[in-house]
Design goal:
The complex is a heterodimer. Chain A has one domain: P-loop containing nucleotide triphosphate hydrolases (Rossmann fold, 3-Layer(aba) Sandwich), CATH 3.40.50.300. Chain A is built from ten helices and eleven strands. In chain A, the strands form two sheets. A seven-stranded mixed sheet of chain A has the order 1-11-10-4-9-8-7, sandwiched between helices. In chain A, strands 3-2-5-6 form a four-stranded antiparallel sheet, covered by helices on one side. In chain A, helix 6 packs parallel to helix 7. The chains are: A alpha/beta, B mainly alpha.
């Protein structure tokens, strides 16, 4: 395994070490090590079923929702031990936001979709309207929806719904955004818009994005982690900067896998 | 026409289809015939006495030779109030039970609670009535005699409605609950917000459908209310007054009713069919709209 260390000078916002995850008796991830540099975009790539989405949902403890899911190892976010019992999930999930593959607005109005998380996180009522407008502008949705904020969010197109979900996640001002194939359920044009939005986020926040699309990983991201199934469980077989992983892969598996992207 | 239908009797699938159609037609026809029969039996009353007198007559004296009176107002009030009270009492309890089952207890406990609700749903109403008579009625009697009362009917009936409403509500709440929980948890929303701000509002139509279904059951319930309501023909002045419902009235008088009296009872039966039919249809409509939204 050639899991390369980031240069010491890089400021890592997430450090994952010796992470194991299993569903019941079925292992999903084994001994995952990875560091995620701050204010960069890190792609998680690999074939289906190698635990990419599971990995992502460990980082904001969504794995807690799966009754027989067991997680061990160490995940450190900004000095916080994410996997510890005492970890404040409310605060963690505000600081580590998430966007899913399938757009998942609540069956409420556009305004309520934006308002509900802000209220729950005790954002002062006087600031909420401003934050909603600002977040919707960030994703280029404001001009499209400002006249129908009180209409159901489910009436929006798929691409608009996904941008709404992105805005909803960004409204909480997270430090890390986890994206689980956010463009793959959208039509190509909408997917491109969402991809552009994510690419512009790196100035403000750290992004970890799961993708099947190696071309997307290559043009969008700064770092790549290649996941692969080994001995029945997923693990990281190669990680590093985009250029290193794509141009000069160290492991045979990664080399063969990324070769697909060279055409 | 499809080619397969040309030799219909040699095609086993076609034969099965015909058999199924026949079976379905039989059950459909029986329902239709029952409604027509009730309508036919009710016609003399509707024609000779007329709907206005059902509410205008001051008394219920259907067997009087000299001056029969057909004032149904006490029974209408009885059925209406017992139903309303039971629905109002059962709805919050049922919704809380459904929320508890779907969101607050471990899966094994939820499984057990669902089976219990199903069991409660299957208990014969005469058992509820009997239990009401020996437990609820004496308690009310000790407080405000005579015990057999509107309140006793409301209490016993609400217990019978809880499983009906709770099971419908649970189905509505369960719909996509996993996705909802993930979406909400990723935003840091806690269980309270998921349940009360998201899941319950989203399931409101399904819950409403369950409430209407419960109301239909309450309107039609007979045995339990005969046993615990006291069956005195009067518009109740308080919760502690005995009442007689339309169903109880039919059950108690049909055995000796003749001619006009009998026809009036059928007319009230027709009313029950219409009301429950309307409630069930409205329940369907509401639940289906909810599923689409």
């Amino acid at each position: 395994m050639t899991n390369r260390e980031q240069p010491a000078a890089t400021d890592n916002v997430l450090t994952i070490d010796g992470l194991n995850v299993s569903y019941g008796k079925v292992p999903a991830l084994r001994d995952v090590r990875l560091t995620v540099p701050r204010h960069q975009i890190t792609a998680v790539v690999g074939p289906s079923g190698c635990g990419k989405s599971t990995f992502l949902s460990v980082l904001n403890r969504l794995t807690d929702l799966v009754p027989d899911c067991r997680v061990s190892g160490r995940v450190e976010f900004d000095g916080i031990d994410v996997l510890s019992r005492g970890c404040d999930l409310f605060a963690l999930r505000r600081r580590v936001g998430m966007v899913f593959q399938k757009p998942n607005p609540f069956a409420l109005s556009i305004r309520r979709n934006m308002e509900l998380p802000l209220r729950e996180h005790r954002v002062p009522a006087t600031e909420i309207d401003g934050i909603i407008e600002c977040s919707l502008r960030d994703v280029g949705l404001w001009d499209e929806v400002k006249d129908r904020l009180d209409k159901s969010a489910l009436k929006l197109s798929g691409g608009q719904q996904q941008r709404l979900c992105l805005a909803r996640a960004l409204s909480l001002d997270p430090e890390v955004l986890l994206c689980d194939e956010p463009c793959s359920a959208l039509d190509p044009l909408s997917g491109e818009i969402v991809e552009d939005l994510i690419s512009r986020l790196r100035e403000r926040i750290t992004v970890v994005i799961v993708t099947h699309n190696l071309a997307q990983a290559r043009r969008l991201t700064d770092n790549v982690a290649v996941f692969w199934q080994q001995n029945g469980a997923g693990t990281v077989v190669e990680a590093g900067s985009v250029d290193d992983v794509f141009e000069n892969p160290q492991s045979e598996i990664a080399s063969a896998y990324v070769a697909g992207s060279r055409g | 026409m499809k080619p397969s239908r040309s030799n219909s009797w040699s095609d086993p699938d076609r034969r099965l289809e015909l058999a199924l159609r026949a079976a379905a037609s039989v059950s459909g026809c029986v329902v239709l015939l029952i409604v027509l029969f009730v309508l036919w039996q009710a016609l003399p009353a509707l024609r000779d006495i007329g709907l206005p007198r059902f509410v205008a007559d001051a008394d219920w004296r259907p067997t009087s030779d000299t001056q029969p009176q057909f004032g149904m107002l006490p029974m209408l009030a009885g059925s209406g109030l017992v139903t309303l009270g039971a629905v109002l009492l059962a709805t919050p309890l049922a919704v809380f039970s459904a929320v508890l089952v779907e969101f607050y207890v471990p899966r094994s406990v939820a499984w057990l609670l669902r089976r219990l609700l199903e069991l409660l749903n299957g208990v014969p109403s005469v058992v509820f009535g009997f239990w009401g008579l020996v437990v609820v009625v004496p308690l009310i009697n000790a407080w405000q005699p005579p015990g057999q009362s509107l309140l006793a009917g409301v209490l016993v009936l609400s217990l019978m409605l809880i499983p009906t409403i709770a099971l419908s509500a649970a189905v509505a709440l369960r719909d996509d609950a996993g996705d909802l929980a993930r979406s909400a948890a990723a935003l840091g929303l806690d269980r309270g917000a998921v349940v009360w701000s998201l899941a319950v509002p989203r399931a409101s139509r399904g819950i409403g459908g369950g409430v209407l279904l419960g109301a239909a059951r309450a309107v039609g319930e007979t045995m339990a209310v005969v046993i615990v309501c006291g069956n005195i023909v009067q518009v109740p002045a308080s919760l502690f007054d005995p009442v007689r419902t339309i169903t109880a009235n039919i059950a108690m008088e049909m055995s000796y009713a003749t001619a006009g009296h009998r026809s009036v009872l059928f007319a009230t039966g027709l009313l029950l069919i219409l009301v429950t039919g309307f409630l069930v249809a409205a329940s369907r409509l509401l639940s289906r709209r909810g599923a689409r939204a």
